[in-house]
Amino acid sequence: MSLKNKNITRVALVVPKVKKDTPIALPYGLASIAGYVLENCKNVEIKFFDESIGCDINMELIKFNPHIVGVTSNTVQIYKAHKILGFAKKAFNSLTVIGGIHVSSLPEESLLYSDIVVVNDGEIVFKEIIENYQKGILSKGIFQGVEIKNLDDVTIPYHLLNVKGYLEHSSWVLPSLEKPMVMITSRGCPFKCLFCYNSKRKPSVRHQSAKKIVSDVLFLHKEYGITNFYFGDDNFLLNVNRFKEIAKLFVDNKIGHWIQWGCQTRARNLSFETLTLAKNVGMIELSLGIERGDERLLSLLKDKTNISDNETVLSFCKKLKINVGGGTIWGYFDETKEDMEKSFKWLTTQTNLSFIAVGCIIVYPTAKIWEIYKQKGFLPKKVNYEKLLQTNYAFDTYFHLEHMNKQKFAKRLLHYSRLLRLYAEVNRTYSFKHFFFRMSRNKRWWWGWFKYPIHMIKMVYRILENKKE
Q1: pLDDT tens digit string along 30-44?
Q2: Count of C-beta atoms within a 10 Å radius of residue 218
Q3: Is residue 65 predicted with pLDDT exceeding 80?
Q4: Confidence of residue 169 (pLDDT cuts 50, 70, 90)
C-alpha cells in the first residue's frame, strides 16, 4: 500500500506503445491537459508513462498507485489502451479516462473499457473530472470536450516529460533534419481530405501566437540544447501573418543563427515570398501532402489541391535549395493501373523530391473514406484496428480494388516504393562516389540494377544534371 500523501490526487497520463517504424513525438495533447490541470487544480500530482520511449507501463503504474488513469489513443493503439485501462481498474480501482482521435470518433466502443470517454479537447473536461473526484463524485459516461479558445493559455510542463527520451527515439523520416523536437502549434484544419482524420470532425482552427511559439523554442534550446525542430501542424505555413510574426521574432532573438527546422504544410497558396522568408530564418526541410501525381485521384483524395499547386511549390523549393518531399497514397478502390503509372511517372520526373513516402490507403474510422468503404461493403464487420497502420505492404492493411488484381497491385506498390526512394536519394546526390559506394551498401540499390536497369541509368544521368546545376 502506498504511503504517499492521502490529500494528493495522483493522476497517471499514459501513451500506449506504437508499432515499429511509427513516428514518435512528444504527446502534446496529454501534455496540454497536464499543463491546464496543474494551473487550475490543487493537490494534484501528475506523471507521464509512455511505452513508445521504453516505459514499462504496468510496473510504473504499480509504483505510482494512481487514483486516476488517463489514456490517449489513436486507432492502432486502441487495443493496448483498453488493456491498460483494464489493468488500472483491476489493480488500483482507479477512475479510468480515455480520449484521443480514435475515441472521439467511436466513443461508445471505448465506454465498454473505461469509466469516462472524452470526445475532442480534453483540458477543461479533465480538470472537472479531477475536481469531482476530489469531492467524492465519480462521474461515468461520454463527456463532450470544451474547446480551448486560446492555445496560449496552456503551458506544456516539459519538466514532467522525458524530453531527451523523445529526442533519442525520434524516428521522423527526414534526410537533413536529424532527431528533431516535434512541436504542435495549432489545432483543427479547414480542409476535409477524404482520407484524413479531420474530415469528419468539426473543431475550429486555432493557433498559438508567434510569441508563445518563440518562447517555447527558446526554452527548449536553453534547457535541453535543442537546435532541430519540426513543426508537425497539419498546415504550419497556412497562417501567413502569424508566420511573418514568427520570422520577425526569430530574427529579433537571433534564433536564425542556430536553428534548423522543417514543417508540414500544403501547396496551395504557398508563395515564393513565404518560402524565402522561411529559408532565411532556418527552414531546411518542407513536407507536403503530395498524395498523387495524377489529377483524377488527387482531386478525389485531397481537398483544394491540384498537380499544378504541387509543381509550383516544388519549383520554388528547388530555386531556394530547400529539401522537399512528402507522402503519397495508393490503392483507392477505383484506382487503375493507368492511374498508378501516371502518378509514378510524374513522381520520377520531379528532380528535387528529396524524400518520399509510399503507402497503401488507410481507412481510418475518423475519416470520410471509412463511411464510403463501409457502405460499399469493402471492410469486414469486425475491423482489426492494428491493421490500420501506414505501410507499403498492401496486404498488411485493408484495401479493395475494382479494376486491378490485388497481388499485382501489392507487388507494383512495393516496387514503386523502392524505386522512388532511390530517385529521392539520387535527387540529393551530386557525386558518383556517393551514388556507387554509399548507395551500393543498400540491397535496394542492387535490386534496382537487377530489376529496373533503365531507371537506374536514368538516375545516373540525373546525377550528371545535378552536377551541372
Answers
A1: 999 999 999 999 999
A2: 14
A3: yes
A4: confident
Q: Which parts of 320-461 are beta strand (E)?
A: 323-330, 353-360
User: Is the predicted pLDDT of residue 202 greater than 80, yes or no?
Assistant: no
- Among 274, 381, 292, smallest CA distance to 339 is for 292
Angle at 78 between CA 74 and CA 82, to 5 degrees: 140
Which residues are bridge partners to 315 per DSSP?
none
CA dist 83 and 61 (Å) reads 13
What is the structure's pLDDT at 241? 97
Query: What are the structural domain ranges in the chain?
Result: 9-146, 167-428
Residue type at position 42 = K
As to burial, measured by CB atoms within 10 angstroms (0-12 exposed, 13-18 middle, 19+ buried), residue 394 is buried
Distance linking the first and last C-alpha atoms of the chain: 70
Bridge partners for 95 per DSSP: 68
Helix and strand numbers, DSSP H then E, in the chain:
18, 14
Most distant CA pair in the chain, distance: 74
pLDDT (0 to 100) of residue 44: 98
Q: Domain 9-146, what architecture?
A: 3-Layer(aba) Sandwich (3.40)
pLDDT in tens, 77-86: 999 999 999 9
Question: Is pLDDT at 321 greater than 50 in this prediction?
Answer: yes
C-alpha cell at position 126: 479533465
**Could you give the C-alpha distances from 374 to 245, 363, 377, 399, in angstroms and in order?**
45, 10, 5, 12
| Contact criterion met (CB below 8 Å) for 82 and 57 | no
Give the mean model confidence (pLDDT) for residues 355-383.
94
Q: Which long-range contacts (CB under 8 A, 24 or more apart) does 82-91 make?
A: 82/110, 82/113, 82/114, 84/14, 84/16, 84/57, 85/113, 85/114, 86/113, 87/57, 87/58, 87/61, 88/12, 88/61, 89/115, 91/58, 91/61, 91/62
| DSSP letter, residue 381 | S
In 3D space, the residue among 121, 109, 125, 29 whose CA is nearest the CA of residue 68 turns out to be 125
**For residue 69, what are the β-bridge partners?**
12, 96
Q: For the domain bounded by 167-428, which CATH number is listed?
A: 3.20.20.70
